[in-house]
Amino acid sequence: MCENMDIYSFEDVINQIEEGLDGNIDIGDLAKKSGLSVYEFRRIFSFVAKIPVGEYIRKRRMSQAALRLINGEISVEDAASIYGYDSVSSFSRSFKEFHGASV
């Protein structure tokens, strides 16, 4: 089962996730490019990365948001919108939970 990951290497998967942090990341598309079902893809990703793919994406988005906020590239309102939150307050709650500091 793991040998199928060679179709679209784990590094390719991570690169595509990184490129899509500020947009929609389609797990089904990643699975298909990897030659796996979504179920298999999720299992293999979790095994290799030691974290579920959804959690990995959420954590990377929060890290990216913090970096862009610190660098003054975006506002909190922009960050909430870019990283898929329905409101500034829900983004702020998640940000504080993840980083331990308010935005």
Structural commentary:
- The structure is a single chain.
- The chain has 103 residues and is mainly α.
- It has helices at 10-19, 27-33, 38-49, 53-70, 76-82, 88-99.
- The protein has six helices and no strands.
- The radius of gyration is 15 Å and the shape is elongated.
Helix vs. strand class = mainly alpha
Tell me the helix content: 55-70%
Q: What proportion of the residues form beta strands (DSSP E)? A: under 5%
The succession of helices and strands, N to C, reads HHHHHH
**What is the number of strand segments?**
0
In terms of quaternary structure, the protein is: single chain
The tally of helices reads: 6
Sequence stretches where pLDDT stays below 50 over 5 or more residues: none
Radius of gyration, in angstroms, nearest whole number: 15 Å
